Amino acid sequence: MKTFELKTGKPVIISGPCSAETQEQTLETCRQLAASGVVDVLRAGVWKPRTNPGTFEGVGLKGLAWMAEAKRGTGLPIAVEVATSKHVESALEFGVDVLWIGARTTVSPFAIQDIADSLRGNRDVKVLIKNPMNPDLALWAGAVARLENVGIDIKNIGLIHRGFSYFGHTKYRNSPMWHLVLEMRSRFPEMAMICDPSHICGTRTYLLEVSQAAADMRYDGLIIESHICPEKALSDAAQQVTPDALVELVKSIRWRADSTDDPEFKKSLALYRSEIDQIDCEVFDLLSRRMKVAEKIGRVKRDNNVAILQGGRWTSIVDKVVAQSGKLDLSEEFVRTVLEAIHIESIDRQNKVMNS
Ligand code: PEP
Ligand code: MN
Q1: Helix (H) or strand (E) holding 174
Q2: The pairing of beta strand 157-161 with beta strand 192-195
Q3: What pLDDT is attached to residue 354?
Q4: Phi/psi at 66 (nearest 5 deg)?
Q5: Would the CA dihedral through 132, 209, 225, 218 be positive or negative?
Q6: Does the structure show a pLDDT above 60 at 2?
Q7: How far apart are CA 157 and CA 137, in angstroms?
Q8: Which of 15, 26, 104, 174 for mutating ligand 1's site (highest number of atoms within 8 Å of CB)?
Q9: Ligand 2 centroid to 123 CA: how many Å?
Q10: Could you tell me the distance, in angstroms and rounded to a whole number, from the CA of residue 270 to the centre of ligand 1?
Q11: Which three-class secondary structure state does DSSP give residue 101?
């Protein structure tokens, strides 16, 4: 079997169906992916954590047997999702090379500890931990620590960025929150960070733009769902692509160099960075002035015994700024996020004044 490491400097490409559904679908998807030569690891979910009961919850052990057959036929390592120690035992019996822990499992320290205990002392298997559903890096880092504590070599642990649940409007199924993941990478620089554009996007439409963004940020690989007949998939139909489309997608991604010694490049970068630093100073200077005005409003309200929240006023501010977003070349989502942060701080300031 082709051996592989998680972090080699060359991006690792993992693909296969969201779920193993039938023997034919699993083997044919894997056969086509392997034949393309662009895929390093085959994936399929056999136990599916679904939001609603009554939806397709995976084929279980049968699926492991199909994946083991795909491994024998293609020579490629295989990956499945595990959520319990029982899953881990079965997956290891079937020769699974990479276990991934799903986003719904990473949120649960009991489940992670159960998985970790069943892996104690295992020297070979690789484990990829998806980010938790909610944007909480401590939970993600806690899962890493639990695996390290049972003796799993750090080079066999990797992270998958699949986006975060987000209350509010975003064009993606799960908001990428790239900044959080950059923070996680700086905490665990030796660990591979793999992007999962499929679960970030939720539809095929944005797969390339998210994959390219990951490549631009020097991620260590991608995990993308593929299916011989995506429209008929029993789970995540809208986001899966055919093996042919997967190959085209992967080939069109440009992986960039980490850095360059070119003096022209260094000069332009230094120039733009100082421009950004200057703008940041100005932006925060303006925000500080805005908060001082909010405090003045708080004082006037206090002296006149008026409540902080005046219905309609905030909506009209948001509407006014959002209407400008196109002209400013800023996305509506970004404008709303910034305004929300300003609003929280503003209310906090007014509260302090009211109670002083
Ligand atoms: C999956 O990879 O099919 C999956 C269930 O992903 P997530 O845990 O990211 O939702
Ligand atoms: Mn899926």
Answers
A1: none
A2: parallel
A3: 85
A4: -65, -40
A5: negative
A6: no
A7: 16
A8: 104
A9: 28
A10: 40
A11: strand
Q: β-strands 78-82, 98-101: how paired?
A: parallel
Contact between 191 and 154 under an 8 Å Cβ cutoff? The reply is yes
Of the residues 81, 129, 223, which should be mutated to test ligand 1's pocket, given the most ligand atoms within 8 Å of the CB?
81
Of 238, 211, 205, nearest to 224 by C-alpha is 211
Q: Cα(5) to centroid of ligand 2, in Å?
A: 24
Handedness of CA 266, 270, 271, 275 (dihedral sign): positive
CA distance 139 to 321: 35
Crossing angle of helices 243-252 and 207-216, in 10° steps, is 40
- In the block, tokens 């992986």 appear at 255
Nearest-ligand number for the alpha carbon of 173: 1
H-helix or E-strand containing 18? none
Q: Could you tell me the maximum CA-CA distance found in the chain, to the nearest angstrom?
A: 78
Q: 87: phi > 0 → left, psi -120 to 50 → alpha, else beta; which?
A: alpha
- Angstrom CA distances, 96 to 7, 67, 81, 191, 343, stand at 19, 8, 10, 21, 49
Q: What is the C-alpha separation between 238 and 231, in angstroms, rounded?
A: 7
Q: What's the rounded Cα separation, in Å, for the pair 231 and 192?
A: 32
- CA dihedral defined by 137, 142, 144, 147, rounded to 10 degrees? -160
Per-residue confidence (pLDDT) for residue 1, from 0 to 100: 60
Which pLDDT tens digit goes with each residue over 19-28? Answer: 999 999 999 9
Query: pLDDT value at position 273?
Result: 96
* Mean pLDDT computed over 236-258: 95
**Nearby residues of 49 by Cβ (< 8 Å), 6 or more positions away:** 81, 83, 102, 104, 105
| Tens digit of each residue's pLDDT (9 = 90 or more) over 313-322 | 889 999 999 9
User: Which residues touch 319 (CB under 8 Å, ≥6 apart)?
Assistant: none
Query: For residue 167, is pLDDT > 80?
Result: no
Distance from C-alpha of 281 to C-alpha of 204, rounded to nearest angstrom = 39
Amino acid letter for position 345: E
Q: Which two tokens stand for residue 323?
A: 């209407």
